[in-house]
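4.2 Preliminary Data

To establish feasibility before requesting continued support, the project team ran the inverse folding procedure on a target of 618 residues. The structure was first converted into the token representation described in Section 3, and no sequence information of any kind was made available to the design step. The complete token record follows.
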């Protein structure tokens, strides 16, 4: 048996041994796969009644698999004998049962804007289970690197990556091969084969890949040295080249860009929208820390320089980002994006400071801080679902009181129209609170305020959306009109023509056999900045050939482009009558969108045509 064959045989042998080494873990993964296959087998109308149950089971088994991986590793690495191993497996089953009961009894999504036929888990319940999975997985990595003379956190961290990509590679090969066989059977032998066959193959492949992942790890038994540990946690040469000579220079280049931004910000002030800054900063902090762990044991000059330079540069960049988040919160209060950025900022600052003080020894502490912040983010009062809502409730209450719009615990229309800044701030807070889930809102707040009609009637002015975070003109503005619900008198018209246009560049035609001849009606929708047009012929003679420029000009005058979002226009605004000596036509529009790109100096149009009504004059 050659080395290649032996290596493959060992992979599959260890995957099978995982059933013995981590019985509870594999049992949860198998249960997860069984539930998945049941859901595949049941078509949606049948599955609808069990959707909530299946969701609870899926999240329970996913958490149970990772939690048991950590508890069994803890039992094997810290205690002798079979009893701790048995207790760890039983404890995992008990915790999973408690998790399922909590999800089933308290995890139902019951508050929100939509009413669905099927029940589902709330976002908060899913977030809390996700946090528990993250904490369990980080605990497993910490436990896997506990043997000081054989491993550490960075070695265990890389070993986990190696196990994942090994399992992923084998899984993809098996999935591709099995799907190819199934495809051949469908093409050559059984054409009516259901697509569910491929879904079953994917589920079983996922389960098998997970057993490879679990079986890839060395033996963590206390006081036992597994020779495989050094092999599986050692970085191969290509990984060292990838991390040190490719990714480190890229990270240093990104650091240089951010430091230049810091310098420009110090002299000219903040000039980047917060949404962009938060994404770049979060990616830099997470990616930079991940790379630091990966090159912890690299001895080349680039890696050493990066380990010394990254924490200091990160602290400088994070200091300016603190200024940015202060400006953002001062203007807009804390919302979900700001909250997430704050959490990441706290983790990044703690990590950078610890790396400066303790070097690689800080990595396990940073992992624990990550777990702590994951728990904080889903806790009552201070969690992502609660703290932003409290902040925005206080902000909105202050704004309404200042404008005299909150009286005796009731919102009343503004007696005097607020300034544009106040309108923007009120709209911003109202829409955030109206769409907030899993949170307790003030007694005086009504979720129906997200409706334009309700907003206008309760507050006395239309929704006005704020500009971006730093007051820079947004590149896009527009007018967005919708047809109101109302009756329409069509007794003067003979025919109704429905034109279903679904995308730009379409053209729809219809014919009518009238008393005066045969009519051909063409509705033409251009692309981008092209204006729609109507063309009507009778027996080859053109009666109407008209674009909608004049109509759109009138709309832009009455509804100037801005950032106010959709507006429910009047019925007259959403109809266009064209009268000629031969026919009279009325076009009814379901929506009219005019997008203005200030930077490109162009307009884009979309007019949704509801109906065309035609009257043939005698």
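Position-by-position output of the design step:
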């Amino acid at each position: 048996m050659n080395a290649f064959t032996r290596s493959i045989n060992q992979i599959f042998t260890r995957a099978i041994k995982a059933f013995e080494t981590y019985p509870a873990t594999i049992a949860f993964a198998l249960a997860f796969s069984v539930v998945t296959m049941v859901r595949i087998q049941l078509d949606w109308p049948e599955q609808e009644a069990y959707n909530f149950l299946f969701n609870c089971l899926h999240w329970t088994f996913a958490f149970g698999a990772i939690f048991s991986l950590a508890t069994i590793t803890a039992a094997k690495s810290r205690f002798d004998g079979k009893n701790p191993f048995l207790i760890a497996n039983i404890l995992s089953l008990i915790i999973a049962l408690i998790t399922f009961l909590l999800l089933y009894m308290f995890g139902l999504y019951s508050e929100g804007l939509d009413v669905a036929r099927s029940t589902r888990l709330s976002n908060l319940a899913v977030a809390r289970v996700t946090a528990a999975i993250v904490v369990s997985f980080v605990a497993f990595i910490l436990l896997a690197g506990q043997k000081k003379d054989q491993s550490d956190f960075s070695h265990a961290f890389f070993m986990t990556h190696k196990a994942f990509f090994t399992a992923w590679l084998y899984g993809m090969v098996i999935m591709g091969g099995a799907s190819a066989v199934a495809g051949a059977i469908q093409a050559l032998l059984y054409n009516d084969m259901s697509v569910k066959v491929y879904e079953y193959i994917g589920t079983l492949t996922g389960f098998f890949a997970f057993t490879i992942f679990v079986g890839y790890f060395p033996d963590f038994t206390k006081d036992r040295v597994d020779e495989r540990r050094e092999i599986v946690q050692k970085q191969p040469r290509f990984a060292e080249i990838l991390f040190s000579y490719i990714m480190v220079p890229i990270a240093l280049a990104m650091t240089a860009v951010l430091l230049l931004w810091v310098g420009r910000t110090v002299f000219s002030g903040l000039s980047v929208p917060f949404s962009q800054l938060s994404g770049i900063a979060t990616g830099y902090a997470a990616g930079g820390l991940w790379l630091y762990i990966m090159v912890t044991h690299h001895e080349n000059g680039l890696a050493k320089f990066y380990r010394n330079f990254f924490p200091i540069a990160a602290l400088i960049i994070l200091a300016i980002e603190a200024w940015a988040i202060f400006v953002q919160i001062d203007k807009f209060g804390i919302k979900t994006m700001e909250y997430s950025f704050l959490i990441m900022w706290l983790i990044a600052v703690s990590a950078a400071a610890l790396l400066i003080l303790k070097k690689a020894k800080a990595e396990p502490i940073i992992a624990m801080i990550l777990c702590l912040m994951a728990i904080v983010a889903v806790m009552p009062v201070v969690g992502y679902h609660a703290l932003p809502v409290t902040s925005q409730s206080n902000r909105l209450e202050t704004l309404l009181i200042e404008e005299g719009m909150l009286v005796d615990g009731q919102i009343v229309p503004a007696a005097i129209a607020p300034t544009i800044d106040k309108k923007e701030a009120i709209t911003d807070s109202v829409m955030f609170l109206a769409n907030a889930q899993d949170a307790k809102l003030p007694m005086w707040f009504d979720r129906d305020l997200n409706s334009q009609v309700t907003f206008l009637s309760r507050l006395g002015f239309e929704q006005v959306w704020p500009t971006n975070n730093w007051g820079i003109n947004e590149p896009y503005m527009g007018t967005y009109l919708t047809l109101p619900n109302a009756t329409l008198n069509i007794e003067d018209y003979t025919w109704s023509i429905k034109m279903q246009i679904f995308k730009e560049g379409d053209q729809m035609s219809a014919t009518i056999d009238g008393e005066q001849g045969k009519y051909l009606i063409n509705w033409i929708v251009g692309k981008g900045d092209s204006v729609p047009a109507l063309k009507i012929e009778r027996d080859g003679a053109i009666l109407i050939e008209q674009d909608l420029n004049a109509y759109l000009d009138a709309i832009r005058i009455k509804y100037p482009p801005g950032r106010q979002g959709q507006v429910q226009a009047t019925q007259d605004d959403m109809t266009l009558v064209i009268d000629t000596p031969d026919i009279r036509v009325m076009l009814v529009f379901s929506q009219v969108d005019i997008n203005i790109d200030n930077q490109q100096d162009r307009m884009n149009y979309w007019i949704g045509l509801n109906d065309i009504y035609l009257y043939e004059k005698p």
